[in-house]
Amino acid sequence: MSFDAAYEALTDHDDDARWAYGTGFADPLAGVDTTVPADVDRADLSAYCLALGDDALIMSHRLQQWVTRAPELEDELALANIALDLLGQARLLLSRAAEVEDAGRDEDVLAYQRDAAEFRNVRLAERTDADFAHLVARLLVFATWRLALLDRLTASGDPVLAAIGAKGVKEVTYHRDYAAQWVVRLGDGTPLSHERMQAAVDAVTPLIGELFRPHPTEVRLAAVAVAVDPSALRPEFDAVWAQVLKAATLRPAADVPDEADSGVSASVAQDGADRGGSSGGPAGAGRTDFAPDGGGRDGVHTAALADILAELQGVARSLPGSEW
Amino acid sequence: MTATSITDTDEKAFTETIAKDQRVEPRDWMPEGYRRTMIRQIAQHAHSEIIGMQPEGEWITRAPSLRRKAILLAKVQDEAGHGLYLYSAAETLGADRGDLTRRLIEGRQKYSSIFNYPTLSFADVGVIGWLVDGAAICNQVPLCRSSYGPYARAMIRICKEESFHQRQGYELLMTMMRGTPAQREMVQDAVNRWWWPSLMMFGPPDDQSPNSAQSMAWKIKRHSNDELRQRFVDMSVPQAEALGVTLPDPELRWNDERGHWDFGPIDWSELKRVISGDGPCNALRIENRRRADEEGAWVREAAAAHARRRQEAGA
Asked: Which Pfam families has this protein been placed in (chain A) (predicted)?
């Protein structure tokens, strides 16, 4: 590379594919058949994409908060990489949600202009990490569950979800592997790390149940082979979780009640009631149909989500009408 | 070929390698002064990448669009990668990454003084890409021809990525300048704050640069500080015009005779203050790095204990 040629490369304005490491694309759904299958309820499909997108967006945000704080440089790279993968998945899913909804919103309106009660992520995604052990425990649970989900989504009747599933499987396989390796290292490391890893496993366990509790939207879309019924993912999750904990010389937390156990199961019976978050209505629309102690899929969140949104949305909301 | 029994042949081989513009490789004999200088330079560069993650890293969670967030996250990840790459190059000279990190935290090794300035708005992300990465590229492209092989090769990859970062930064600024009056003000304000510190990135003027002569002779360095600074100014002025921002220097004017842009005097006392630890963010940057290192200590110890146990079980 000559000295002067390097400068020329900076001043020309051709837009090659490497401009933003694959992040600069204008249309995240380019090349995929985006027609909504005929027998699919658009509001349901939009709500489902929104929920899976919110999981990825909020989990990515928590990982972004670890940037410059990781225990080793290799982990700095790995965590940023995982955060970037999940952000990419969030963008695809939110874009799909907006497109199917067809109400003039886009990925940024969905990410930046909704309040906490309109977010549909599981509570696991929003939890603060007390230390690195808590992060890897939470990441292991999240990635194991999501990998099982994305793997089944590759067979979805919606071509976009199938494509997102196929892309995500490769990524999340690595996320799960990364987290599992750390859980094992810390569990089977020093007495201190063992103690901290066990505390992290105990702390994350109450958040697991929510991941497998079917929401009415998921049930309806699973019936037409578009979505995955999360309850079907439990055996795979349990097997992986048990295997990793064993290798890590950790014990499963026994008989822990789920944090969001009550109230939500009742909502399953209210088939068709939940269109909140997919209807494009004002904040809070539809939420009164649910018990206040429902789960994240019903828009019921912990205070941690409000903190995340204050950080995520602050700049965007302070400068309305701006292009970025 | 050991350091304790330097032969004339060793020294001659080294001198010839330099004279012929060839690369010195890790196993070649080299003068201790060359080794020390290379370790210091590569370590400072690695530290700069790692500390440099902080000012922009602060904006990842706050980026106002998902696309900008992805671009910024990828950029900060690249910087971690550059740091890793450079620490590895320093290790080929016998340095140890952990030891270099301790030297950084204890203030015994420096990093680029530019990262001791705060990032006050999202426009700073764009201006850092345009001006700070631009200045870094001016400094670093000649290093792709550094006489030390592993460093030169690391720099080729780093420069390619830095040039993408610069374009991304400039593209963000272009978008903001097409936006609302508030956005244009943000960009101008950021340019006002970063212009002079960017010029200082090239180091003191040539007549006050203590290590330059030896580094030029060893072909670790290829151009003088003032020469690179001039290149940067010449490159940036038309870019500022295209952007529609004013560079905060009333003495900036084209000199037909020299064929270069003249610019006003640099406040070197500010650079001295910032280098000696008295910049706006020196303490914060080091404190963050120290805390991450300390909070990660138990994790690294656990990984080492686990690896030992696995090794014993396998043996």
From this structure: PaaA_PaaC (PF05138)
Query: How many Å apart are CA A36 and CA A293, to the nearest integer?
Result: 33
Indicate whether A2 belongs to any domain: no
Nearest residue of A to residue B61 by CA position?
A312
Q: Is residue A9 part of a domain?
A: no
Query: Using the beta-carbon criterion (under 8 Å), do B159 and A69 form an inter-chain contact?
Result: no
Structural domain of residue A270, as residue ranges? 38-318
CATH number of the domain encompassing residue A96: 1.20.1260.10
B136 contacts: CB under 8 Å, gap ≥ 6: B112, B162, B201
A94 CB within 8 Å of a chain B CB: yes
Complex prediction ipTM: 0.93
Residue among B71, B182, B306 minimizing CB distance to A188: B306
Residues β-bridged to residue B262: B253
> Which sign, positive or negative, has the C-alpha torsion B13, B16, B18, B23?
negative
Rounded Cα–Cα distance for residues A95 and A30 (Å) = 11
A294: in domain: yes
Are the Cβ atoms of B164 and A81 closer than 8 angstroms? no
Residue by residue, pLDDT tens for chain B (315 residues) are: 455 567 788 999 999 999 999 999 999 999 999 999 999 999 999 999 999 999 999 999 999 999 999 999 999 999 999 999 999 999 999 999 999 999 999 999 999 999 999 999 999 999 999 999 999 999 998 889 899 999 999 999 899 999 999 999 999 999 999 999 999 999 999 999 999 999 999 999 988 877 777 878 887 777 889 999 999 999 999 999 999 999 999 999 999 999 999 999 999 999 999 988 899 999 999 999 999 999 999 999 999 999 999 999 986
Who's near B95: CB < 8 A, 6+ residues apart? Answer: B39, B42, B43
Count of domains in chain A?
1
Q: A183 exposed, middle or buried (CB, 10 Å; 0-12, 13-18, 19+)?
A: buried
Q: How far from the centroid of its chain's Cα atoms is residue A312's Cα? A: 15
Question: Do the domain assignments include residue A8?
Answer: no
